[in-house]
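Whiteboard transcription, Tuesday session. T.W. wrote the structure tokens on the left side:
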């Protein structure tokens, strides 16, 4: 009887299988959105010190553009949550408290992000 046709014992069926020659499976990142910047890839393939002054300034402006869009969207969402007073539904006394405690923004970030910041205590 050939090895391929012989029955396997219970002990043999529990043995780990030999590795196959198939290539390993690697995670594939989705393609970046048009205009998206991957700084870690950029830095790894071309150190910032190697950039000319003009290229460095251009890249900085390119990186800021999507950041500003995200920040604008964040402020609009915070304003809508504030207008609907959804922070109260989540048991927070104010939007500022919701931003700092639920969203874990720093006090400075919460103050700047809020369309109607809470008045700060006087430092006099």
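and on the right, the sequence the group agreed on:
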């Amino acid at each position: 009887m050939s090895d391929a046709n012989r029955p396997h014992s219970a002990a043999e069926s529990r043995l780990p299988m030999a590795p196959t020659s198939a290539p390993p499976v690697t995670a594939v990142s989705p393609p970046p959105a048009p205009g998206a910047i991957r700084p870690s890839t950029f830095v790894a393939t071309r150190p910032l010190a190697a950039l000319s002054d003009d290229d460095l300034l251009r890249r900085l402006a390119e990186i800021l553009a999507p950041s500003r869009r995200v920040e604008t969207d964040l402020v609009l969402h915070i304003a809508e949550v504030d207008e609907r007073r959804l922070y109260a539904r989540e048991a927070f006394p104010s939007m500022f408290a919701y931003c700092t405690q639920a969203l874990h923004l720093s006090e400075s970030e919460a103050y700047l992000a809020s369309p109607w910041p809470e008045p700060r205590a006087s430092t006099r």
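Someone added at the bottom: The helical segments are 10-13, 39-45, 53-84, 86-89, 95-102, 107-113.
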